[in-house]
Design goal:
The complex is a heterodimer of chains A (about 250) and B (about 475).
Chain A: E1 2-11, E2 14-24, E3 29-33, H1 40-48, E4 54-62, E5 65-66, H2 72-77, E6 80-83, E7 90-94, H3 95-109, H4 117-130, E8 141-142, H5 148-162, E9 166-170, H6 178-190, E10 197-202, E11 215-220, E12 223-228, H7 231-239, H8 241-250
Parallel strand pairs in A: 3-10, 3-11, 6-9, 9-10
Antiparallel strand pairs in A: 1-2, 1-4, 4-5, 7-8, 11-12
Helix pairs in contact in A: 5-6
Chain B: E1 24-26, H1 33-42, H2 47-61, E2 85-87, H3 101-109, E3 123-129, E4 132-136, H4 139-144, E5 148-151, H5 152-158, H6 160-166, H7 177-185, E6 190-194, E7 203-209, E8 220-225, E9 230-238, E10 245-248, E11 251-256, E12 261-268, E13 280-291, E14 297-304, E15 309-312, E16 315-318, E17 324-333, E18 338-347, E19 353-363, E20 367-376, E21 384-394, E22 399-408, E23 414-423, H8 426-434, H9 439-455, H10 460-473
Parallel strand pairs in B: 3-7, 6-8, 7-9, 8-11, 9-12, 10-13, 11-13, 12-14, 13-15, 13-16, 14-17, 15-18, 16-18, 17-19, 18-20, 19-21, 20-22, 21-23
Antiparallel strand pairs in B: 1-2, 3-4, 5-6
Helix pairs in contact in B: 1-2, 2-7, 5-6, 8-9, 9-10
The chains are: A alpha/beta (about 250), B alpha/beta (about 475).
Chain lengths: ~250, ~475
C-alpha cells in the first residue's frame, strides 16, 4: 500500500528526514516512535503533501502511484488521511457542513452523486457512535472553541466519515486524558479492516496499549534506527530513547 | 500568503458581463440645465419635480467631489457622461406581454425570470434596465393587499402626493455631492408604499442592470412603511464588462413610521474591473433610513462583492423613541477593487438601539475600509450601540482599514466596540485540502464561515446566492 524508499526531506534548507525506508501493507498497523525533533511529524506532513517541506531524494509509492507527484487533495481523495497533531480551527463553519463538504468531495471524485444534508444526517449518526458523541457536536464550529481532547476526537470523527485506506495519526494521543484516549483508540480500532492500514506516530507508548501495532519503528535524527514488534514499544518505554540512540550509533 | 496553493486559481470570467444588443434612446453626453429639462420631459414629469431637480443641480455646481474616503481614482468628467439611456421598446406602464423579448431574455440569463409562468415564487421583482424600469412582477397581487410596488416614474404619476411628501425627506438634495447629482438627473428606481398595519406578503426586489456604454445609472428608491407596516426588500445589480469606468450614483430613502419595520438587503455585484484594475463600476451611493416613529426598526444588510470602487454608508436616523437601527455588512475586495463602506447611526430618540456588524474580506490588491459613525444626541437617553468590525486578509498585497467615529453627547449611553483582523491561513487551506477539498472550495468555505453572522440576516432565497457569489469573487485571489 505504502512504500517509502530512501526518503530525504527538509524545510528551509535543513534536512530533517535522512533516508527513511518503510513499507506498509494493507491490514497492518505500524507505529513510529521517536524523541522530539526526530522527524516524526515531518514524515506525516510530507506524506500528506504539506508544501512547507521539500523532498530532496527518494520515492514514496502509494497504491502503485507516485505519491509525491500528487496534490494534497488528490492524496486525500485517494484515501490517505492525516489526523492532525494540531487540528486547525475554522470559525463559523459547522462540523456538519465541513464533514458533508469533505464527504461529497470524496463521492464526487468517485463519480457518485453528492448526498444532501438530510441523507448525510442518517449516515453520520452511525459515525458519531464510533467516537461516542451526540449529534450536538455537529452544530459546533470546526475545532474553534473545542478543548484539546475534543479536537482530537473530532479528527477521528472525520476519519470515520471519510473511511481512509491509509490513516496517519500524528500524535493523536497528545493532550488526551485517559478516558478520551480510550474513546479515540476504540474508535480507531473499530475502523480496522483487512484492506486498510494505519501509521501511528507517537512519542509515548501509552497509546499503543490501546491501538496495538504489528510493527514498531524507532525514528532518531531522521532515520529509522530500529524496527520490531509491539514489544519494542514496551522496551522503549522502560529504557528510554537513549537506549536505541546508542544502539543506533553502534549498528 | 507565503505558500503557493492559492496561486493555482484560474480566473473565471465575470458571468454577468454580457451586453444586450438593443436599440436605445440615448441623450447626448454632458450635464446642464437643458439636459435636466430633457430628462424631465422624457419622463413627462410635473413642474415641481423639475424645479426640485434644477435646485439640486444648482446646488451641485457649487459643491466639490468628496475625497475623504480611502479610495483612489482618476478624476471623473461629469460632462463626458450620458445621463439617460433607455431601451426604445419600453412603453411606459406597459404590461409584461409588451416587454421586448430581448429584455426578458436578458433577465432570464441573469437568473431573474420575469415571465408570468417562470417568475420567482414569493418574490416580486422590479427590473430596471439602464435608466428605466422595464417590468414589475406581482404588481396586481400586491395591490390587493394595499401594497404599492412600482417604478419611481410610475409613482410620480400615480401617487404624486406621497412622492412629494417624502422625496428628499431623508436624503435632501443638498446632502452631499453624489446625492445632489442624483437628485438632478435621477431617471428611475423603485417605489414601495406599505400602508398602515399591512405586512407585505412577499419579498420585494429590484434588479438593477446597466447595459449602455458611457452611461451612468442614477436610480432613486423610496420605501415608506406606515404605522405597524413591515416589508423586506432586496436589490441586486450587475453590469457588462467594459474598459471604461461607469458611474452608479444612487439614492435610497427609507421611512418607517410608528411600529414599522423595513428590512433592506443588497447583493451588489457590479462589474469590478479586470485583473489589472481596468474598468468597473464606481458605486457611489447614499442610502439612509429614518426611524421616524416610535418602536420602528430599519435593518440594512449588504453583501458587496462587485464594483471597482464602493463608497456607501447605509445609515439610520433613530428619531422615534425605542427605535432600532441595524447594519450587517460583508464587503469583499479582490484584484484592484476598493471599498470604503460602513454606516452612520444617529441616535435622537430615547432608548434607541443600534447594532453594527461589519465583515471585510480583502484579497489580491484590494483595499477595504470600514468607516462608521455612532452619534448620540443630548436628548437620546439610554441609547445603546454594539459595533463589531472584523477583517480577513487573503494574501500580502491587500489592505484592511477601520475608521470608527464616535460622538456621544449623552452620559447614559452604553457602547460596545469590538474589532479583529485575521489572516486566512495556509494551515486552514491545507487542512481542508487534506480532507479532499480544492483550494477554491477551501477558501469559499473559510470565508463563508467568517461571513456567516451576516448572511443569516439575508432573506433565505438570497443567502445561498450570496454565498456562491463570495466564492466566485475570491477566485483568482492570488497571494
Amino acid at each position: 500500500m505504502l512504500e517509502i524508499t530512501n526518503l530525504h526531506a527538509g524545510a528551509e534548507g535543513v534536512e530533517i528526514l535522512k533516508g527513511i525506508n518503510l513499507t506498509v501493507n494493507a491490514g497492518e498497523v505500524h507505529a513510529i516512535m521517536g524523541p522530539n525533533g526526530s522527524g516524526k511529524s515531518t514524515l506525516a506532513q510530507v506524506l500528506a503533501g504539506r508544501e512547507d517541506y521539500q523532498v530532496t531524494e527518494g520515492t514514496v509509492r502509494y497504491e502503485g502511484k507516485d505519491l509525491l507527484e500528487m496534490e494534497p487533495e488528490e492524496r486525500a481523495l485517494a484515501g490517505l488521511f492525516m489526523a492532525f497533531q494540531y487540528p486547525v480551527e475554522i470559525p463559523g463553519v459547522t462540523n456538519a457542513y465541513f464533514l458533508r463538504v469533505a464527504y461529497n468531495a470524496l463521492r464526487k471524485s468517485r463519480g457518485l452523486e453528492e448526498v444532501d444534508p438530510l441523507d448525510f444526517m442518517d449516515l453520520i449518526d452511525e459515525k458519531l457512535k464510533t467516537v461516542e458523541w451526540s449529534a450536538d457536536i455537529l452544530e459546533r464550529q470546526v475545532n474553534a472553541g473545542m478543548s484539546g481532547g475534543e479536537k482530537k476526537r473530532n479528527e477521528i470523527l472525520q476519519m470515520a466519515v471519510l473511511e481512509p485506506k491509509l490513516a496517519v495519526l500524528d500524535e493523536t494521543d497528545s493532550g488526551l486524558d485517559i478516558d478520551a484516549l480510550k474513546i479515540v483508540a476504540q474508535g480507531v480500532n473499530n475502523m480496522r479492516r483487512p484492506d486498510n492500514a494505519l501509521l501511528v506516530i507517537t512519542h509515548y507508548q501509552r497509546l499503543l496499549n490501546y491501538i496495538v501495532p504489528d510493527y514498531v519503528h524507532v525514528l532518531v535524527d531522521g532515520r529509522i534506527v530500529k524496527s520490531g514488534g509491539k514489544e519494542l514499544a514496551l522496551e522503549l518505554e522502560a529504557q528510554g530513547y537513549e537506549w536505541v540512540q546508542e544502539a543506533g550509533a553502534a549498528s | 500568503m507565503s505558500g503557493s496553493s492559492i496561486d493555482e486559481f484560474v480566473d473565471r470570467e465575470y458571468q454577468w458581463g454580457f451586453v444586450t444588443d438593443i436599440e436605445s434612446d440615448v441623450i447626448p453626453p454632458g450635464l446642464s440645465e437643458d439636459i435636466i429639462r430633457l430628462i424631465s420631459s422624457k419622463k413627462d414629469e410635473p413642474e415641481w419635480l423639475l424645479e426640485w431637480r434644477l435646485k439640486a443641480y444648482r446646488g451641485w455646481l457649487k459643491m466639490t467631489e468628496p475625497h475623504w474616503a480611502h479610495v483612489h481614482y482618476d478624476p471623473i468628467d461629469y460632462n463626458d457622461m450620458i445621463y439617460y439611456a433607455a431601451p426604445k421598446t419600453v412603453k411606459p406602464l406597459g404590461s409584461l406581454d409588451e416587454v421586448d423579448p430581448k429584455l426578458l431574455e436578458t433577465y432570464e440569463k441573469l437568473g431573474i425570470p420575469l415571465a408570468e409562468q417562470k417568475r420567482l415564487t414569493g418574490v416580486a421583482v422590479d427590473a430596471i434596465f439602464d435608466s428605466v424600469s422595464v417590468a414589475t412582477t406581482y404588481k396586481e397581487t400586491l395591490a390587493k393587499e394595499g401594497v404599492t410596488f412600482c417604478s419611481f416614474s410610475e409613482a410620480v404619476k400615480e401617487h404624486p402626493e406621497i412622492v412629494r411628501k417624502y422625496l428628499g425627506s431623508v436624503v435632501p438634495h443638498s446632502d452631499n455631492f453624489f446625492a445632489a447629482l442624483n437628485a438632478a438627473v435621477f431617471s428611475d428606481g423603485s417605489f414601495v408604499f406599505i400602508p398602515k398595519g399591512v405586512r407585505c406578503p412577499m419579498e420585494l426586489s429590484t434588479y438593477f442592470r446597466i447595459n449602455a456604454a458611457n452611461t451612468g445609472q442614477f436610480e432613486r428608491t423610496l420605501i415608506i412603511a406606515e404605522e405597524g407596516a413591515s416589508v423586506s426588500y432586496l436589490e441586486g445589480c450587475t453590469a457588462p464588462m467594459r474598459d471604461e469606468n461607469q458611474l452608479h450614483a444612487a439614492v435610497v430613502e427609507l421611512i418607517a413610521l410608528d411600529d414599522a419595520t423595513i428590512k433592506y438587503s443588497t447583493v451588489q455585484n457590479w462589474y469590478s474591473g479586470d485583473e489589472n484594475g481596468v474598468g468597473g463600476v464606481y458605486n457611489f451611493v447614499t442610502k439612509r433610513g429614518k426611524c421616524a416613529g416610535v418602536n420602528s426598526r430599519i435593518t440594512w444588510t449588504q453583501v458587496e462583492t462587485g464594483s471597482a470602487i464602493t463608497w456607501k454608508y447605509p445609515s439610520v436616523i433613530l428619531q422615534g423613541d425605542n427605535s432600532v437601527g441595524e447594519f450587517y455588512s460583508v464587503a469583499v475586495v479582490n484584484r484592484y477593487q476598493q471599498a470604503d463602506t460602513g454606516t452612520k447611526m444617529i441616535h435622537i430618540g430615547k432608548n434607541t438601539r443600534s447594532t453594527i456588524i461589519s465583515k471585510g474580506i480583502s484579497a489580491g490588491h484590494g483595499n477595504n475600509s470600514y468607516r462608521g459613525l455612532v452619534k448620540v444626541l443630548p436628548k437620546a437617553e439610554g441609547a445603546r450601540n454594539y459595533t463589531q468590525c472584523d477583517s480577513m486578509l487573503i494574501g500580502n498585497e491587500c489592505g484592511a482599514h477601520t475608521f470608527p467615529y464616535i460622538d456621544i453627547q449623552n452620559d447614559t449611553t452604553s457602547m460596545e466596540h469590538e474589532a479583529s483582523t485575521r489572516k486566512i491561513g495556509e494551515d486552514q487551506i491545507f487542512y481542508c485540502k487534506q480532507r479532499g477539498m480544492t483550494t477554491e472550495d477551501a477558501i469559499s468555505l473559510i470565508v463563508n464561515g467568517f461571513a456567516k453572522e451576516v448572511f443569516q440576516y439575508l432573506p433565505m432565497e438570497f443567502a445561498v446566492e450570496a454565498q456562491n457569489l463570495l466564492g466566485i469573487t475570491l477566485e483568482g485571489s492570488v497571494g
